[in-house]
């Protein structure tokens, strides 16, 4: 018979352990599993974003939410960076603002964003970011890629010229609707979103026609047919509502 004592379970590995750190010299508290972006918003500290959307998983695709962390030579995306005890975060240093502007300018150069003829003109998150960051012109050469428009769906259309590869459409279709109609094809700036292994949207056998992807799109890349210039206003109120209702009906084993 063995005399070995049974191993004791560690009780100090609590993923929700509270810690404190600083954002812009302001003391804040957080759980270990909360992102810097989430904590900043809880404390009314604004960090601009483009690919983030409450209710969806984080992707860290746009890099607009980069912040400076004392002791680190890298600028890190606030949406996917977890805090550490006594960390010091700066959200609007001169360096951070400079890089955010460069990133935004490069996003404009990668596709063909012509605001004056866009259905989301005046209601576009990319456009709003340009105003917020003071980007009035672009210092880099435009790539002018040849991207088509898929209007094969009976109700919606996708204009790849205006896509910023935030992948909100992919995430909402997978995580909320459960259809996983949308996916990503290609690499780098040549990537583009596709439906059903690069089939026309109108021939998709998985699309439910719910329109969630259209409503979460930050630009005019996804839109409803019949909308003219500046008429496409996105309605995202459904997302927190669905999350709340889903949480209420979760089984204990799902929580």
Provide an overview of this structure.
The protein is α+β, with helices and mostly antiparallel strands and 255 residues long. The chain folds into two domains: 18-92, Ubiquitin-like (UB roll) (Roll), CATH 3.10.20; 99-234, Alpha-Beta Plaits, CATH 3.30.70. 23% of the residues lie in helices and 15% in strands. The protein is built from six helices and ten strands, in the order ββαβββααββαββαβα. It has helices spanning 36-42, 94-110, 125-133, 168-177, 212-216, 238-248; strands at residues 18-23, 26-31, 66-69, 75-77, 88-90, 149-150, 156-159, 182-185, 192-195, 222-224. Strands 2-1-5-3-4 form a five-stranded mixed sheet, with helices on both faces. The chain has a three-stranded antiparallel sheet with strand order 6-7-10. Strand 8 and strand 9 (192-195) form a beta hairpin. Helix 2 (94-110) runs antiparallel to helix 3 (125-133). It is globular, with a radius of gyration of 21 Å. The model is unreliable at 4-13 and 251-255 (pLDDT under 50).
């Amino acid at each position: 018979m063995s005399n070995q004592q049974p191993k004791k379970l560690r009780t100090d590995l609590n993923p929700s352990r509270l810690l404190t750190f600083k954002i812009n010299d302001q003391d804040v508290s957080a759980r270990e599993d909360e992102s810097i972006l989430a904590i900043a918003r809880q404390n009314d500290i604004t960090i601009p974003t483009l690919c983030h959307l409450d209710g969806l998983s984080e992707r860290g695709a746009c890099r607009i939410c980069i912040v400076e962390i004392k002791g680190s030579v890298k600028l890190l995306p606030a949406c996917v960076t977890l805090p550490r005890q006594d960390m010091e975060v700066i959200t609007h240093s001169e360096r951070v603002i400079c890089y955010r502007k460069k990133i935004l300018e490069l996003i404009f150069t990668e596709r063909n964003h012509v605001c004056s003829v866009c259905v989301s003109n005046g209601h576009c998150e990319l456009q709003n970011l340009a105003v917020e960051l003071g980007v009035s012109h672009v210092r880099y050469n435009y790539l002018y890629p040849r991207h088509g428009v898929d209007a094969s769906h009976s109700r919606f259309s996708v204009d790849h010229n205006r896509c910023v590869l935030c992948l909100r459409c992919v995430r909402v279709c997978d995580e909320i609707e459960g259809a996983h109609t949308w996916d990503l094809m290609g690499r780098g700036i040549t990537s583009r979103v596709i439906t059903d292994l690069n089939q026309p949207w109108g021939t998709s056998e998985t699309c439910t026609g719910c329109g969630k992807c259209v409503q979460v799109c930050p630009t005019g890349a996804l839109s409803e047919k019949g909308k003219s210039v500046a008429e496409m206003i996105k309605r995202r109120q459904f997302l927190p509502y669905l999350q709340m209702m889903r949480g209420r009906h979760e089984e204990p084993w799902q929580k």
